[in-house]
Queue: 2 jobs
Job 1
Amino acid sequence: MLDRYFLSRHVRRRLTQSVLAKPLVAFAEHLERRGHTPAVVQSYIQAVEHFGRWLQRTRRTADDVSAETVRTFLALHLPRCRCPVPHTRSVATLRAALHQLLLVVQARARATQAPSTPADSIAGAFDSHLREACGLAVATRLSYLRHVREFLGARYGAGPIDLAALTLADVTAFVTARAAHLAPVSANAVTLAMRSFLRYLRLQGIGDARWIAAVPRAAQWPLATLPRVLTDAELSAFQAAFDRTTPTGRRGYALGLCFTELGLRVGEVARLTLDDVDWRAGVLTLAPGKTRRASQLPLPARVAAALAAYLRHGRPPTSSRVIFVHHRAPRGQPLGPSGVRCAVRTAYGHAGLGTRLTGTHALRHTAATRMLRAGASLKEIADVLRHRSLDTSAIYAKVDREALTEVALPWPQGRP
């Protein structure tokens, strides 16, 4: 494997003598799968060799590779490094290479890790339930699992887990203890996770159905605030922030329109495939996701044109059917929700909105409010946004200030 990147036998012998010799081959294979160029692979291997020399001098081994040792290397060794060439001293290269090394080491560790604990078994079965029966997104499942693992650890510690001995007092004590240090939104995230876990346990014949409603939640008024939306000027600045003369700019503009014109969720944008677009009928089909059922939306000509421009003149060659893909390593692989968010945050920064906006939900809110101002009913908005309840869409009625002034009662005048 290393022969492809280093022709000199002296260099290859030096690499095989490194304390990181074993992970180096897996590291090179990992970089190849990600689509890095040979020059980048060679540079990253040299960066890892530099790190390995430092490990050896400080009497560490490959088993000591961790995020902490990487931080120590970058913070303490690198500023006063006098290592001979070809050891790179570029902070950016070393940081990127060692990040990929950590991914390889962690993957190898998971492959050889000890058998799962009872908590792992329970969490795994609960995760399968959330995925298959509830259709929850990956981020939501990870959040629920984190809270459930914390609960099991607080209730049972490292000992055996007897779910039949669980009581409502155990759940209530855990939720109230966590809520004491959290904002209402975060506290209710714990409540939602625990209620979902209790529903799952009921399906297993454990607990009482009345427990679910008894789990306390923090006071939070969903209609107390206005949704965060972009003004017309801000929306124009956001869309103009994408440089459509470049491939990444065409990609960003197309995915941005999916938010502002169609009101899609970030996961829905990331999952769009070539098979979801019916160009002749002008219809976009969304695969089952949060609502557990497929949905069809009309495809506006503006969005269709942006998607076509990206597919024809921006998207790199790839075998993936996903529309939005990486333009750098891993080149051609699906962009994923985090990549979509990154593209939106970058546009916020270029449009001067970075201090006020960070997430993508403001774009979904903007799409809803624009539909409302165009005369769409709440039922029509709920259909487009795939809300299962009109109450979820009701908050957008508060955004149309002009319409609200027409129904507002006059302010009572005081007596003379």
Job 2
Amino acid sequence: MTSNRWDTSYEWKAVTLLALGFGLVGLDRWLIAPLFPAMMKDLHLTAQDVGNCIGILGLSWGVFAALMGGISDKIGRRKVLIPAIIAFSLLSGFSGVAGGLASLLAVRSLMGVAEGSFCPTSFAATADASHPKRRGFNLGLQQSGFALFGLALSPIIATQLLNVVSWRWVFALVSIPGLILGVLMFFVIREPASAPAQQQAAKGNWRDVLKSRNIPVAMVALFCAMTGVFVLGAMLPLYLTDYLALDTQRMGIVVSAIGFGGFVGQFALPGLSDLVGRRLASIAGFAGTAVMLYVFRGVGAQPLVLFIVLFVASFFTLGLVSLLSGPVATEAAPIGMVSTAIGIVVGAGEIFGGGVAPAIAGFVATRFGIQNILWLPICAVILGIGVSLLLEETAPARVRGKARGVGLVGGEQPE
């Protein structure tokens, strides 16, 4: 990039690779959920074990998202991104050689380290590569890869591959694309010319980030949204097969609605927030999720209806994840500390929503029955409505409109 002309070619190459990379994060992370019914038989796992396997990855992801976001602001993006994508791809393959619960938990916790390091760094790299007027769109595009690959395509890929290979080979096969993508990133991704920003990041610390009101509010709100995403992603396959008695193939199709709905929502809800504001979009997202999940509880073994309702619920809840960890966190960040801010917000959401909540859901399923797990995300997103009321508006168009209105009241003439 030069001072006179924006390097659009590099922008699209970088954003495409980073979107594919985050898509593979989603694929490697969520491939395990539709494989759990088969794995439970071979490894003698319980519903509580399933929740713990999802939760331990979320915990380590959250811790390292918070840590590595700040580190990448200081040392650069490449030194974090490329080792991280190679590591989580290899570890995903190693999930297929687990001999029991202990080894599976160990592999998944290490995957969380690598994926948590990749997450905020990749968001910041996308922001670095993007022209300011396309930054929101590009961040939505990159994050939507997680929903498309991880939550839409992974249930279909997993359940169809189970027809021809064992679950162990499924893990091995899906680790290959990440290794290829890591090589491509090595040759394409470059550091931004942002020495002043890096100097500012070197002077700052995480306490400076927390001084912005929207950061702690977004942390709590993202916990509420991620509780919806991760409890559904972890437990819904068991809910559909054990409670509604769907076969494996129909279960895979229904669960894919989480990803397809989320893929659309991660574009649409942040885009809508450009027009109506971050605060109103967040409130609407939580309210829409709550209504749809309540409706979902009353639907029986009707795959098409289940798919439609789950699609809409996921549109809202994954749209919230993109909104809170993208525009809200980015606009609240001090200069030079975008990755730090994203890492802190994502880290908190992951530790509680992606780590603790699935473990609690496993406890609920074991003690009270799998049919009751939906109450946990319903309560979380209702809480999210109240938390969203505390957000300060930062959408540029809304802030400019408010400032223009103040100026006109003060006697200024419209442009």
